[in-house]
Amino acid sequence: MATAQTPPPVLRRRLGGLLRHYRKASGRTLAQAASILDWENTRLSRVETGQYQIRADEVSTLLREYGITDAETVAEVTRVISSGPRAWWAAYADVLPQTYADSIALESEAVVIRAYFPQLIPALLQTPAYAHAIISSSPRAATQETATALVQVRQGRKEILTRPAGPTELRTVIDESALYPRAGSASDVMRDQLLSLLDMSERENITLRVMPLDAPVHSGLTSNMTIMDFRAPWPSLVTVDHTRGGVFLEAPEDVTAFTEVFDAVYEAALPTDESRDVIKKYMKGQPHA
């Protein structure tokens, strides 16, 4: 459970990984670094793998000994464990798999998010009714109560796009096929969703492009992807969703590969103004007018 002095597990792991990177770059062995804090080797090893909590002052000491003296870098690394209220999504722990909670924690830290989901409106732009229709169709939403809770979570995630201080920048591509009302869905659900897309696309921090139906075959067809960029010195990462949750890819070569795919998809999609025109046509029921 995330509290003011206990960051979410995924952030602890990223902190540990960063400390391990700095230690190795400084040329210190695990034993040499542990001795700085009068620790046993196993304790520092557990910190570096995210299994053990570390205080902000201990992080500052290690960074100084590793040669990391830039004030902004030190402040950013220690911020993760020394500030912030209890995470809002902790209230939904009974319905959230750990990988989902980890993804939300990362979203809340991201500066830029680039997302592409073939066939669906991205979760960060879904209205409650649209989200409920999608979530209710999944076997994971076993009860109406669970589905309602998951919809609330999905709506809570959107706060990062509208918060007054430092809203996250979102760049996303939506397949034109995702603008079609699904068979059996209420027409007003899709109309409200399309109107919301238009409203959100007017925000300075959101760039929305539509991939037209007649677009050539492109590399993005093989997978959904969410690429998250963070404040320095935190490295970017990729999340790929699947039926049982999702996976995190943090190796630089993986991030580069998915970034290249997203950039190709982004360039192949319609420009922003033309994308808005396509959405408006679907709202009027005249997509090919």
Helices and strands in order, then pairings?
Layout lengths: L8 H18 L3 H7 L4 H8 L7 H10 L5 H12 L15 H12 L2 E5 L11 H9 L7 H14 L1 H4 L6 E7 L11 H15 L4 E6 L13 E5 L7 E6 L2 E5 L2 H17 L3 H12 L6
Parallel strand pairs: 1-2, 2-3
Antiparallel strand pairs: 1-4, 4-5, 5-6
Helix pairs in contact: 1-4, 2-3, 4-5, 7-8, 10-12
Mind explaining what this structure looks like?
The protein is of the alpha/beta class and 289 residues long. It folds into 2 domains: 74 residues, Orthogonal Bundle (434 Repressor (Amino-terminal Domain)), CATH 1.10.260.40; 189 residues, 2-Layer Sandwich (Endonuclease, Chain A). It is built from 12 helices and 6 strands. The chain has a 6-stranded mixed beta sheet with strand order 3-2-1-4-5-6, with helices on both faces. The model has no long low-confidence stretch (mean pLDDT 89).
The CATH class of the largest domain turns out to be: Alpha Beta
Q: What's the CATH architecture of the largest domain?
A: 2-Layer Sandwich
The helix-and-strand class reads: alpha/beta
Q: Give average pLDDT, whole number.
A: 89
**Residue share in β-strands:** 5-15%
Rounded Rg: 21 Å
> What is the terminal-to-terminal distance?
52 Å
Q: How many domains is the backbone divided into?
A: 2
Q: Count of DSSP helices? A: 12
What's the overall geometry?
A: elongated
Secondary-structure element pattern, one letter each: HHHHHHEHHHEHEEEEHH
Poorly predicted runs: none
**Which strand order do you get reading across the main beta sheet?**
3-2-1-4-5-6
